[in-house]
Specification:
Blueprint (H helix, E strand, L loop, with lengths): L12 E6 L5 E6 L3 E8 L4 E8 H10 L1 H11 L8 E3 L2
Antiparallel strand pairs: 1-2, 3-4, 4-5
Helix pairs in contact: 1-2
Length: 87
């Protein structure tokens, strides 16, 4: 699986390293990703998500169910991509 947040859809960006002499070389700005385990109350099961720090804050703000529904509606993840643990 690639480095994409399943909640916010954030991906790595491309930029430049700029030296003191203003010489530019390409670099990547990677996403701050975690593999986090959540208890999904609506389904009574544990799930794991690959989320960024911004996605974690969004889950704390909206709740897990609302954040997942919003991510599926925007096309960032699908319910079959979410890994269910211990079912």
């Amino acid at each position: 699986m690639s480095k994409i947040c399943q909640i916010t859809g954030k991906t790595a960006q491309i930029g430049n390293n700029v030296s003191h002499s203003k010489h530019r070389t390409k670099r990547r700005f990677n996403v701050n990703l975690f593999t986090k385990k959540f208890y999904y109350v609506e389904e009574q099961c544990w799930i794991t998500l690959k989320i960024s720090a911004a996605g974690l804050r969004l889950i704390n703000k909206l709740g897990l169910d609302a954040a997942l529904k919003q991510a599926v509606a925007k096309g960032y993840c699908d319910y079959k991509d979410i890994k269910v643990i211990g079912e």
